[in-house]
């Protein structure tokens, strides 16, 4: 004899208890709704009045917030920049970037000659580069 497979699930005690609770809750709600339908209508009207008063209060609060001026930002003090004057020179430099000689700006030819002489004498090359130095104010 072959057993027939049943697709029905066996309900547990906890499932049956939860179903019973749901039935009780729904029946309690229906009895309350029948008795309290008049109460609900009255509470709806008061709820509408409360909502309108809340809207008015929020509008007043918004106006107060709008009336308040934002705090003025404190002006930052700008640093007074001292005038720095620079003067241009021609510098003769060796390969390790040490300044060997310094010439006025209008003496470029002499600076080039000096760089050529130093390059011939020593094994390292020398070059001419513009140098700007600060002039002290009197």
In short:
With 138 residues, the chain is of the alpha+beta class.
Verbal overview:
This protein is of the alpha+beta class and 138 residues long. It folds into two domains: 53 residues; 51 residues. The protein is built from two helices and three strands, in the order αββαβ. The termini are far apart. The mean pLDDT is 76.
Distance between the termini: 124 Å
**Fraction of residues in helix:** 40-55%
- Number of spatially distinct domains: 2
Strand fraction band? 15-25%
Given helix and strand content, the structural type is alpha+beta
Order of helices and strands: HEEHE
- Mean of residue pLDDT? 76
Give the strand order of the largest sheet, numbering strands 1, 2, ... along the chain. 2-1-3
Which key features would you list for this structure?
three-stranded antiparallel beta sheet, single chain, 138 residues, 17% strand, alpha+beta, 2 domains
Helix and strand topology:
Layout: H1 13-67, E1 85-93, E2 99-104, H2 108-121, E3 127-135
Antiparallel strand pairs: 1-2, 1-3
């Amino acid at each position: 004899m072959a057993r027939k497979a049943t697709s029905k699930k066996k309900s547990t005690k906890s499932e049956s208890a939860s179903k019973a609770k749901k039935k009780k809750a729904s029946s309690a709600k229906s009895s309350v709704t029948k008795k309290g339908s008049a109460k609900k209508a009255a509470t709806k009207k008061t709820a509408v009045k409360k909502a309108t008063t809340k809207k008015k209060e929020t509008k007043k609060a918004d106006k107060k917030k709008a009336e308040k001026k934002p705090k003025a930002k404190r002006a930052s003090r700008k640093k007074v920049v001292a005038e720095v004057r620079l003067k241009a020179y021609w510098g003769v430099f060796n390969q390790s970037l040490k300044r060997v000689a310094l010439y006025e700006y209008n003496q470029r030819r002499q600076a080039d000659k000096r760089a050529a002489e130093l390059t011939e004498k020593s094994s390292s090359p020398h070059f001419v580069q513009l140098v700007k130095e600060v002039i002290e104010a009197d």
